[in-house]
Amino acid sequence: MARRRRPSPLPPRDGVDATRVVLRSDPSGSEAAATVGASILAMPAGAGLSVDDLVARFDAGELLDIDGCRVDPGEASRPQRAVYFYRDLPDEVEIPFDLDILHSDENIVVIDKPHFLATMPRGRHVTQTALVRLRRMFGNDEIAPAHRLDRLTAGVLLFTTRPRVRAAYQELFAARAARKTYMARATVDPTVATPIRIENRILKDAGDLRARVVAGQVNAISDIELVDSSAGSGLYRLAPHTGRTHQLRVHMAGLGVPIEGDPLYPVVRPEIAELPDRGDFSQPLRLLAASLTFDDPLSGRRREFVSARDLTSDPGR
């Protein structure tokens, strides 16, 4: 079992966790030891910051290591040392769709996530994420996701409300004990007979936008069925049995029926991908996490949550 990461020495601020970076000895690769400041500024997390910014955080006691000790930006960078600080929040395009609450209790919050809203902060998406919205809505910085949905995918998403129950719910998804059903809109190809099971190997390299199918041991399995073709395009029911990144999108594209609005598969379409960053949400990925069913790990009770979103209408509905 993987060792759990120790908690941040800095608490969340307005629903946003402090940034964690792992230092390198020298970002340029030369033998001369780099400073902590130089190492941080060479990383994506340091974009937009200056040495003076880091010094100001040090003076405020907001540049700390995992033990809560202050870290001077001018000291030598020690490889693999974890350092925490607050980043300035980026300017973000507001996602103009509601985050609907399907259920909440002392242990979990289940939402019906809209398209375009990321599950949790990453890169330039920070406050416009489901996690930060929920923390602010409930006034609870201990809320955390038990699993994730792609930013472009809408539907049912489960969060835990306190650390003591988090592992039990996360294990549901790690062990594939939670059943997830998706719906998707795509073209209809009469030569593609469904229901069909797709089994192959999918890999996605860090820094690469797209996943790819490669030779080797199967790690991605999906059941795909066309359930309605009366609305000008096909409505498909998708049941993933594994959880590879972009799995359903890759499998649908591989069948020759890519999901409507997909900016990455079968080919990259930057003209679609760039629309949300300009405030245009008219072409969502027509993929919906339609239902989530599991036996509650604490009560043993059977739970089922169903999305109310409609793939044929405006993305906010």
Summarize the structure.
This protein is an alpha+beta fold. 15% of the residues lie in helices and 25% in strands. The two termini are 40 Å apart.
Note down, in words, how this protein is organized.
With 317 residues, the chain is α+β, with helices and mostly antiparallel strands. The chain folds into 2 domains: 19-85, no CATH class; 100-306, Pseudouridine synthase (2-Layer Sandwich), CATH 3.30.2350.10. The chain has 6 helices and 14 strands. It has helices at residues 36-41, 51-59, 130-138, 163-174, 247-254, 270-273, and strands at residues 19-22, 63-65, 82-85, 100-104, 108-113, 144-145, 154-160, 179-186, 196-203, 212-214, 220-228, 234-240, 287-295, 302-306. Strand 11 (220-228) and strand 12 form a beta hairpin. It is globular and about 65 Å long.
Would you spell out the secondary-structure blueprint of this structure?
Blueprint: E1 19-22, H1 36-41, H2 51-59, E2 63-65, E3 82-85, E4 100-104, E5 108-113, H3 130-138, E6 144-145, E7 154-160, H4 163-174, E8 179-186, E9 196-203, E10 212-214, E11 220-228, E12 234-240, H5 247-254, H6 270-273, E13 287-295, E14 302-306
Parallel strand pairs: 7-13
Antiparallel strand pairs: 1-3, 2-3, 4-5, 5-7, 6-7, 8-12, 8-13, 9-10, 9-11, 11-12, 13-14
